Amino acid sequence: MDPAVHLRSAVALAGRFPALSGVDLDVAPGEVVAVLGPNGAGKTSLLRACAGLVPVTSGDAVVLGCDLREDRTAVRRRVGLLGHDASLYDELSAAENVRFALRAAGVSSRVATARADGALDRLGLVGRLRRTPALRLSAGQRRRAALAVLVARAPELWLMDEPHAGLDAGARSLVASLVADAATDGAAVVLTSHEPDLSVPLADRVVVMAGGRVAEVRPGGRDVAAAPPLLVAVKGDDADVA
Amino acid sequence: MWRDALLVASKDVRIELRSRVALWQVLPFAVLVLVLFGFALGPGPATLRSAAPGLYWLAVLFSTVLATQRSVAIESGEGTRDGLRLSGIDPGGVFLGKAAAVALQLVAVQVLLGAGLVVLFGVRLEAWWLALVASVLATIGLSAAGVLYGALSAGLRVRETLLPLLVLPIVAPVLIAGSRAWSAAVSGAVGPGTSWLKILGPFAAVYVAVGIGLYGPLQETS
Hints:
The complex is a heterodimer of chains A (242) and B (222). The model of chain A is unreliable at 237-242 (pLDDT under 50). Chain A is globular. Chain A has a single domain, classed as P-loop containing nucleotide triphosphate hydrolases (Rossmann fold, 3-Layer(aba) Sandwich), CATH 3.40.50.300. Helix content of chain A is 35%, strand content 26%. Chain A has nine helices and ten strands. In chain A, the strands form two sheets. In chain A, strands 6-7-8-3-9-10 form a six-stranded mixed β-sheet, sandwiched between helices. The two termini of chain A are 31 Å apart. Chain B is 88% helix and 0% strand. Chain B is built from nine helices and no strands. The interface between A and B is medium-sized, with 27 and 20 residues.
């Protein structure tokens, strides 16, 4: 089976500055990979490069069979990115935001409404919350609405940048079940985190990044403790990791 | 592309109806410009009537900048801009949709300003159809140019101050041709007036075509 993500010596620029400095990474369909590392390690840039939002300037970069160096726009419709900022229009309600994302992806109005309702139900945005403009939702509720967009779109590759940030305990366990269900359905999931306790148990593999490179790869899962090198990497001591 | 344009236009119009920026800021600003220029010119009815077409189009131009800034701001969040790029939606459709939403706001501005010219300046249109055609072409050109340059400045920190500097010189032909066409419509000199449509028409066509072609690349670089 072809990997969902295949990066070899991938270099990407954020503006004029290198964001990825030769990343090697393969992610199989149905696999969950947690990416850890200190601030500035290149975690977000890795996700944005996989989404075709940041150009890969050298190396190999193939995502869902699309060569990002030839055409990085072709893959975009097939990936879902949960970024730092919830990609919501403030004046539209959660339901309208999800429906717009689906309609933009070419889904018919009737199907979009049904899928949006299902996704919002799953994220616990029901009743008045569903009709409230995103501007008036709390940060956690906005995060849930952004997750609902991802769930409704059901992409082949889930790219989640700190998915637990700003969520309460209930929503964090919801993220775990969403990630597990996506992987069961055959989607590849790459998520970044500063919280090994939350992300490592979800992952089949853990990738530690430092200085725009993959510094360490280890198995994930519930049984894997956040061993010292992992914790050091997350806290920001690059030298100890490399 | 047309389906995407309709989707984006309806989204932007819905956002404008909820935020009421056009209602509470753009429309009052346009009227204010008209009235203040009227004060500056003095109370002479003949002077006001002869200057009215120019004042009208100046107010429309300034309103274009405001409406365009708002259109850019809707997509200014990192998340929403990424969301639009990841949706797979046709960039040409995004351009047309956003331009259509700006154009609708400019139509509202022009209706209000037209009423202002009649009430405040005592202007009567002898050839109303000439004014109408000129307004339609100018609105298309202004909204297309505004959204195009809005995309150019979208990713810049200084976009609010840069946008007027980019847009106002570029749309000067619309100011000149629109004012002349409206002056002809007021005086009833249809023949000379229609010649100005030959500037407004190509201006609109060029900016719509260039916008459809360049909006995607501009989104990638901004």
